[in-house]
């Protein structure tokens, strides 16, 4: 990646004292030269005073607080931290990321169709049968449910990291109910208002078409006999940490937001209760985890879904997106087989490599990891939101002993990876601009004919110095991700960028309980928050 000049030495600029660490800094190299994609952002901030930059950051936070853009952290609703400095991805980098993510989704689609069908990958020795059978999220009840247009992964969030050499790698796959796209949309609207001239002049690619792309894909997944499908977003309800996202997506797609108590099934079809009577539902974009979706098939005590949904899906009378049972593809042991599965199903080499990973159920790998536990990262194969992760270099002797015991007790439940020094991006802190570690979750929408990758995605940033876990549930924040290569505004143009004029607010605060079942459902929603929908 080309550099365009050294950083200023002026003590009066917000850049004063900015010093990249040994990780790959995406804005400035170790010689103090600004990388080309960041040249305009660097110059714009260099013209500001520190007070001006902090003032803009406070205005940005106030905007988020007014819009109710919040997340749950340690049981407390907080405004979601959005950093004032955007993350910039050059067009040439995106030309690797976008097809790499699309390739990954196509492989995952092929794997899920196979694993819930003939299981050729097992019979041909690509994936061990025992691995599938012991996966927590492999549901035999999903076998034989064939989607109308063959799509099981309607929406995916493929987590990427950039290593110390600047190479993009896949960290994990999220094809159950991936969350976080609402922050992408809200971040963009807020940032395009904060920096309208820079946003337009740099040719940042738009993201706000996501909702219409998603709606079109969901419509194409409807049962074959339906010309004008009724689509709904199924939410666990107001107690769920991602309720803001559920509400925003329903409103921007122009579809109904429903809870399980709003749905009922008759003769193998799903209906929505409305003030005008029952209305047939054809596509359910569910944000309820499998275990809570249908009490007839899964948890009998769940009131978050509706009885009979799985039966209706099996009959082909309703499409559930994402498909039931997709979680087997999120298993971090399956992740280790993805390069082989890409070659097996697509006949292609992976565009985006995995992070090197040890399978701890294999004796030789387990022995090596036990000797090197203090220098590796250990993760549960079914974990999400950064929970259960142990970073050996930061762990105490007692913590390492506890992890060692857990591995020996259940080797299949764990993987190990080298510590990846995630790339860093300039981030505004109480001490000025400092490098902070980031990852990237690009979202992809599959309509059966094409996999469209949202230009950018959710950049999550670890706000604490030296922290490598970026999840919001672990105290992280976010950045607006600017992918270059779009249409640039002419010099001197004064028209605000179109994305700054798109209305995303108006959802308001989360309503108080208005239904006698809300208290009971709230307990289930909070439980699902711990076990179900992955936290971003």
Q: Assign an overall shape.
A: globular
| Strands side by side in the biggest sheet | 7-6-21-22
**Straight-line N-to-C gap:** 29 Å
Q: What assembly state would you assign to the polypeptide chains in this entry?
A: single chain
> Strand portion, in percent?
15-25%
Mean pLDDT, as a whole number? 88
Model regions low in confidence, pLDDT < 50 over at least 5 residues: 505-520
Radius of gyration: 23 Å
Largest beta-sheet characterization: 4 strands, antiparallel
Approximate helicity band: 25-40%
By secondary-structure content and strand pairing, the structural class works out as alpha+beta
Number of helices: 15
* Count of extended strands: 25
């Amino acid at each position: 990646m080309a550099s365009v000049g050294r950083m200023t030495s002026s003590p009066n600029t917000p850049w004063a004292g900015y010093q990249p660490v040994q990780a790959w800094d995406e804005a400035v190299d170790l010689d103090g030269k600004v990388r080309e994609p960041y040249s305009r952002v660097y110059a714009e901030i260099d013209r500001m005073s520190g007070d001006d930059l902090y003032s803009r950051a406070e205005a940005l936070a106030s905007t988020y607080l007014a819009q109710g853009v919040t997340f749950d952290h340690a049981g407390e609703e907080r405004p979601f931290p959005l950093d004032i400095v955007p993350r910039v991805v050059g067009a040439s980098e995106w030309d690797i990321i976008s097809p790499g993510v699309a390739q990954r989704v196509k492989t995952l689609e092929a794997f899920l169709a196979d694993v819930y069908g003939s299981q050729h990958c097992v019979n041909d020795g690509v994936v061990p049968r025992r691995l599938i059978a012991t996966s927590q999220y492999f549901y035999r009840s999903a076998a034989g449910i064939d989607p109308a247009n063959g799509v099981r992964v309607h929406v995916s969030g493929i987590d990427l990291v950039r290593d110390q050499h600047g190479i993009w790698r896949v960290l994990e796959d999220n094809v159950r109910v991936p969350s976080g796209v609402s922050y992408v949309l809200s971040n963009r609207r807020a940032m395009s208002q904060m920096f309208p001239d820079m946003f337009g002049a740099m040719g940042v690619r738009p993201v706000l078409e996501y909702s219409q792309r998603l709606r079109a894909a969901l419509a194409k997944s409807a049962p074959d006999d339906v010309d004008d499908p009724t689509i709904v977003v199924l939410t666990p309800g107001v107690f769920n940490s991602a309720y803001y996202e559920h509400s925003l997506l329903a409103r921007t797609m122009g579809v109904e937001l429903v809870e399980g108590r709003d749905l009922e099934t008759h003769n193998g079809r799903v209906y929505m209760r409305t003030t005008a009577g029952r209305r047939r539902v054809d596509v359910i974009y569910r944000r309820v985890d499998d275990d809570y979706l249908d009490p007839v098939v899964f948890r009998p005590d769940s009131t978050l879904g509706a009885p009979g949904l799985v039966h209706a899906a099996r009959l082909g009378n309703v499409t559930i997106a994402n498909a039931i049972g997709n979680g087997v593809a999120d298993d971090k042991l399956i992740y280790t087989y993805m390069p082989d599965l890409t070659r097996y199903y697509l006949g292609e080499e992976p565009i985006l490599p995995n992070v090197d990973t040890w399978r701890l159920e294999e004796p030789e790998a387990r022995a090596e990891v036990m000797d090197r536990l203090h220098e590796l990262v250990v993760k549960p194969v079914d974990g999400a939101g950064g929970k259960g992760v142990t970073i050996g270099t930061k762990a105490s002797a007692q913590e390492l002993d506890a992890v060692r015991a857990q591995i020996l007790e259940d080797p299949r439940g764990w993987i190990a990876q080298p510590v990846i020094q995630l790339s860093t991006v300039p981030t505004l802190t109480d001490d000025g601009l400092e490098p902070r570690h980031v990852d990237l979750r690009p979202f992809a929408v599959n309509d059966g004919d094409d996999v469209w990758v949202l230009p950018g995605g959710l950049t999550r940033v670890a706000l604490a110095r030296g922290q490598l876990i970026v999840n919001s549930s672990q105290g992280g924040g976010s950045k607006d991700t600017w992918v270059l290569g779009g249409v640039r505004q002419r010099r001197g143009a004064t028209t605000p960028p179109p994305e700054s004029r798109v209305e995303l607010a108006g959802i308001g605060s989360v309503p108080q309980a208005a239904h006698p079942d809300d208290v009971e459902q709230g307990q289930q929603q909070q439980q699902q928050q711990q076990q179900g929908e992955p936290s971003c």
